[in-house]
């Protein structure tokens, strides 16, 4: 029995990943990696669709890789690599560009949102074509399953459409992948602004817990998290988003269901919940931080790991690309 193939990735767009990335992506990936033949990419080609400082980008890529490994992605059980190290991503993306309609690409809502920020004419063609590169990422590995956040649903639909279109036009070539959409309970909100997602681009520094924060800083951020005035520990995302977010984080990290966590803190104050949560989060993240810093202390070893993994990814990717070129007449 071969294991189902899994693909997912993240952009190297900050020095540190945050608790949302950890709970919403890395924890899930770690749990799935044994039962799947998993490919986890650091998608630097996606990152350059908006301006990046070259030296900083290279450093962020390495730091992201270190945090994947530190969080428990095992580079000998999974294939953990940097997207630009495998040229076939860009090569397949070009072919897929040629079978994507202009109108079809223009319907992608994430481009509309992102380009609205900079102005449509100031946005790059690369940003416009982002979802097509993402389709190439996934299809190159004959992926069965793509764990993603809800915001990526439309991009996975496009990926499926392109796979089916290519297969119909040129003969069966691609596995048509399925999205595994992240559970609502795995979505983590900003501690200072608990109705918006914890995000690296948020403007509330105290609302974001970075994996590389010092334990004391993490603790302080949790103790200062925004809650509400009624003093009752209950899970209600509409009426009590702040408290519910703290409960979600507690539940995600301990693996104990929300109701059990509510039961555990019933009748106690927010201060107790925050203290308990700070302990749990620091206990979880302290070894992740330590391991990441250790990995970053030995760049040669990290680069060696990434090179071995890129070679493994290339082997699979080249097979798909060769078949695609052959089918298309290249
Ligand atoms: P950001 O919003 O910080 O830019 P990305 O969009 O790059 O993060 O997301 C990278 C991965 O982390 C995706 O799998 C995404 O679903 C997950 N993720 C990002 N933010 C959160 C969050 N607040 N809660 C849960 N998962 C998240
Ligand atoms: Na995002």
From TrEMBL:
Read off the InterPro entries from this record: aa-tRNA-synth_I_CS, aa-tRNA-synth_Ic, Rossmann-like_a/b/a_fold, Trp-tRNA-ligase, Trp-tRNA-ligase_bac-type, Trp-tRNA_synthetase
Q: Tell me which residues bind ATP.
A: 11-13, 20-21, 149-151, 188, 197-201
Q: Which Gene3D superfamilies match?
A: HUPs, Tyrosyl-Transfer RNA Synthetase
Q: Indicate whether Zinc appears among the record's keywords.
A: no
Which EC class heads this enzyme's classification? ligase
Question: Where is the protein found, in the record's own terms?
Answer: Cytoplasm
Spell out the subunit comment: Homodimer.
| Main function | Catalyzes the attachment of tryptophan to tRNA(Trp).
What is this protein called in UniProt? Tryptophan--tRNA ligase
